[in-house]
Amino acid sequence: SAVISQKPSRDICQRGTSLTIQCQVDSQVTMMFWYRQQPGQSLTLIATANQGSEATYESGFVIDKFPISRPNLTFSTLTVSNMSPEDSSIYLCSVEDLPRNEKLFFGSGTQLSVL
Amino acid sequence: KQEVTQIPAALSVPEGENLVLNCSFTDSAIYNLQWFRQDPGKGLTSLLLIQSSQREQTSGRLNASLDKSSGRSTLYIAASQPGDSATYLCAVANQAGTALIFGKGTTLSVSS
């Protein structure tokens, strides 16, 4: 099973600033997913990041607000830009297990609070 | 649009009880369904995955069933323990290689 390291685990940020979240996987994976979990809500997919191509964003999420990098098959970053208190959430990265048993593995999440 | 609902939202039981968590989804044309456990500060752990062609999966004290035609899944936990206290999430994939659609979860508390 994949082991995912996600950093930072938590952060408190000021309104208007940006935070970059890192996700490192111990094996090469094709697809990486970024989710957001707002307080009391279910996980919502932000975007799918494949190496070598632009990330695909879900409805309601845009690249200017949540730019994603995927420089190789083991690493991705998600930036939360120009933050507001409404961005306070848990952000999680996820990868699909290999070989194709299709279980998803998740990082431990980043708890973000915006003041 | 696929929607996933979990009931109850919260459940408290004494240690040793058997319990059932429920999950329903609006579009029965799913590819697979997964049950996860979420612990604070530890992300999500995949518990069981059921393919659309399967009816149930078992792992230890956990048993998950799937009735695709009625859009329902249940997670059965036998002989509950305080260590089972966590939030349990149900999620479906509509197609292979697509991201999951999650329910809001059931928060379970098992008292000793």
Q: Largest interface, and how many residues on either side?
A: A-B, 26 and 23 residues
How much of the sequence lies in strands of chain B comes to over 45%
Bulk shape of chain B? globular
Mean pLDDT of chain A: 91
Structural class of chain B: mainly beta
Helix percentage range of chain B: under 10%
Q: Nearest-angstrom radius of gyration of chain B?
A: 13 Å
- Strand % of chain A is over 45%
Query: What is the count of helical runs of chain B?
Result: 0
Distance between the termini of chain A: 37 Å
Query: Total number of helical segments of chain A?
Result: 0
Q: Describe the main β-sheet of chain A briefly.
A: 7 strands, mixed
Q: Please provide the ordered H/E string of secondary-structure elements of chain A.
A: EEEEEEEEEEE
- Spans where pLDDT lies below 50 across 5 or more residues of chain A: none
- Give the H and E element order of chain B: EEEEEEEEEEE
Oligomerization: heterodimer
* Overall pLDDT of chain B: 93
Describe, in plain words, how this protein is organized in 3D.
The complex is a heterodimer of chains A (115) and B (112). Chain A has 115 residues and is mostly beta strands. Helix content of chain A is 0%, strand content 51%. Chain A contains no helices and 11 strands. Chain B has 112 residues and is an all-beta fold. Chain B has strands at 4-7, 10-14, 19-25, 32-38, 44-51, 56-59, 62-67, 72-77, 86-93, 101-102, 106-111.
